[in-house]
Amino acid sequence: QNIVSSASFSKTWDESGSSLNINYSRTQNLSNGNIYESLPNISFSKSITYPFKRDDTESTRNQKWYEYIGYSYSGQFSNTRNKVGSNLEIHGGFEHNIALSASPKIGYFNISPSVNYVEKWYNKRVKYENKPYTTASGEVRDSIFTSNVNELNFVRTFNTSVSASTKLYGIMNPNILGVESFRHTLMPSISYVYTPNFASDRWGYFDYYTL
After folding, report:
1. HSE (side-chain half, CA atoms, 13 Å) at 7
2. What is the Cα–Cα distance from 33 to 84, expressed in whole angstroms?
3. What is the DSSP letter of 179?
4. What are the pLDDT digits (tens) for 5-25?
């Protein structure tokens, strides 16, 4: 009853820590002719990189604070094409993910601040409207109508975090059952994460309708 096709391609660049994946899929129902396609889905990622870090081995013994700053990136592109009966819907979007982080050591503490930024591009948005309509009996009722608005939209979100950790070492000498001493390690840590409320009016990502 269905014809299913798919293809994929992947490529990795070890020297830069980057990878690329491309996928295509198509499903066609032979009985009703409905077609569901992803053409294509693309994902790209780059592992964490330290742009200010020196390459010489001598510098690793005495690194500056800015040498601990690193960034990573990933991006996904998706494009779907669904044909159900005579109705054709095409949705496309791009998502960018950028992460900045650092891990300097201040005294006996490891401090790790980070910022994560996400930006989404898409070619349609969903709009809900409350509209009155007249039933066959002449009664006026309200109903929610859903429509797709064809326009380029952007959504930007982010969050920040900071954590601190250290290690405490101790030695105990129990002299019990042949055990003269052993060392124990404590690793206390604390972290804080902040994410704004992107549903609030100031961001303008959501609208309202009345039931």
Report:
1. 4
2. 8
3. B
4. 999 999 999 988 899 999 999
Task: Yes or no: say if 188 and 165 are a contact pair by the CB < 8 Å rule.
Answer: yes
CA torsion angle 43 49 101 195 (round to 10)? -10
Per-residue pLDDT averaged across 114-140, rounded? 84
Q: Amino acid identity, residue 47?
A: S
| pLDDT number for residue 117 | 96
What are the φ/ψ torsions at residue 135 (nearest 5 degrees)?
-75, 175
CB-CB contact of 52 with 80 (8 Å) = no
User: Checking DSSP bridges between strand 35-49 and strand 18-29, what pairing results, if any?
Assistant: antiparallel
Closest by Cα among 36, 8, 10, 35 to 24:
8
Compute the distance between CA of residue 35 and CA of residue 26 in angstroms, rounded to an integer: 7
pTM score above 0.90? no
Residue ranges of E strands in 14-86: 18-29, 35-49, 70-84
